[in-house]
Write a structure and sequence with these properties.
The protein has helices at 2-25, 44-74, 79-115, 130-133, 140-160, 186-189, 191-211, 222-258, 266-291, 351-371; strands at 123-124, 167-172, 178-183, 312-313, 320-321, 325-326, 335-337, 344-346. It is mostly helical. It is built from ten helices and eight strands. The chain folds into three domains: 1-118, no CATH class; 128-315, no CATH class; 317-372, no CATH class. Helix content is 61%, strand content 7%. It is globular. The longest helix has 37 residues, at 79-115. The relative contact order is 0.13. The chain starts with a helix and ends with a helix. α2 packs antiparallel against α3. The protein has a two-stranded parallel ribbon. A two-stranded antiparallel sheet has the order 2-3. Strands 5-6 form a two-stranded antiparallel sheet. Residues 1-21 form the signal peptide. This is DUF1648 domain-containing protein. Residues 329-353 form the DUF5808 domain. The chain crosses the membrane at residues 79-102, 140-163, 183-211, 232-258, 270-289, 352-371.
């Protein structure tokens, strides 16, 4: 119980810290999802919006983490509490962050409109064509750990399979008691291995998508932002492959317990399955904080002024609902860089984006039904 509570608290504190840091990770020309000319990034209204955002997110996140921890402890060993409290706490965090973000978004958007920040400002877009002719190479060496862990788990399972009992434990409650069993078959026994392969394929494929992702370059500093974009996708791909290795390590712990090579307890479950995933997420978060959105925090030498222009990025706020939902029927792109946050979001206006949305909803519903 104590271990599970600690993992839950650590995850909520991590979410709080990441939400607090998010304004500093965004591209300078996109405060709270609002497109502005680069020379307006230092406007007092933006600095004030950042201060208010952080002053609300931090205590709200800490209060949510404290309430979730207290609720779990007061509920004792109730399986219902362990199943309900964590998702409710995450939902509360998301609602808090969204409400505070949206208020800041409206403040900046109103200031932009009132003072005409884009009046008489030349607008354009920047594209690095070299990313298509000379793309970043796939980091195969970083993919090896996840593959080795999967192969090792499969070999261990093949050796252990003849000695397995007639039934296998497939689920434990929050207190470490077995509450689900299934007949021993190749499919049930090797479920952890199949999940490892699926996770590895998904994250390895995501790394490919990251390396070939759409650019979001700064038209005022095209050369510098092109170099930053390369650094961003390079480290994002590596981070995804490291996450795959840690998730597969977690599934190895599940396999060892299922195959009877290790005992089972709530503390051990948190250590063998929860801790590796948390460490993998920390690696991804570290990379996100280090690089910033689209590499905006990476240092690039532009001291000689070469590559600077007098053109601001095109004001395309009309395609972004609240600065987070992208809806553009004239853009065939399925994934586009987020405006607030790290990574990519879906173009809900394109047919490909709508198809991906439906597939994700079906996958989520299927997972919920299978877990229940």
């Amino acid at each position: 119980m104590t271990a599970l509570v600690l993992v839950q608290a650590a995850a909520l504190l991590l979410l709080t810290g990441l939400a607090w840091a998010m304004p500093g990770l965004a591209q300078p020309s996109l405060p709270f999802g609002v497109r502005i000319p680069g020379d307006r990034a230092g406007e007092p209204v933006i600095a004030a919006a950042v201060r208010r955002y952080r002053a609300r997110v931090l205590p709200g996140g800490l209060a949510t983490a404290a309430a979730a921890t207290a609720g779990t402890l007061l509920a004792g060993r109730s399986a219902l509490a362990l199943a309900v409290v964590p998702p409710c706490a995450v939902a509360a965090m998301v609602a808090l962050c969204w409400s505070v973000y949206y208020r800041a978004h409206r403040t900046v958007a109103a200031a932009k409109a009132e003072h005409g920040w884009f009046d008489r400002v030349p607008q354009g877009i920047a594209v690095d064509t070299a990313l298509r002719t000379d793309p970043e190479r796939y980091p195969w060496a970083w993919a090896l750990p996840a593959a080795v862990i999967t192969a090792g788990t499969a070999v261990l399972g093949a050796v252990r399979y003849p000695a397995l009992p007639a039934t296998l434990v497939t689920h434990w409650d929050g207190n470490g008691r077995a509450d689900g069993r299934a007949a021993t078959t190749v499919l049930t026994a090797f479920t952890p291995v199949l999940l490892q392969a699926a996770v590895g394929a998904l994250l390895a494929g995501s790394a490919v998508v990251a390396l070939r992702s759409r650019q979001s370059l700064d038209a005022e500093h095209p050369r510098a932002s092109a170099a930053q974009h390369r650094g961003f996708v390079r480290w994002t791909a590596r981070g995804l492959l490291v996450l795959a290795a840690f998730v597969n390590l977690s599934l190895l712990g599940t396999a060892l317990t299922m195959w009877g090579l290790l005992g089972h307890s709530a503390a051990q479950d948190a250590a063998l399955t929860g801790l590796p995933v948390l460490l993998g997420v920390l690696v991804v978060v570290f990379i996100a904080v280090r690089t910033g959105a689209q590499g905006s925090r990476l240092t690039v030498d532009e001291s000689d002024g070469a590559g600077r222009t007098a053109v601001a990025n095109r004001d395309d706020d009309r395609y972004w609902k609240a600065g987070v939902l992208y809806v553009n029927r004239d853009d065939p792109s399925v994934f586009v860089p987020k405006r607030f946050g790290i990574g990519w979001t879906i173009n809900f206006g394109s047919r490909g984006g709508q198809l991906v949305t439906v597939l994700l909803l079906v996958a989520l519903l299927t997972a919920v039904l299978l877990l229940n």
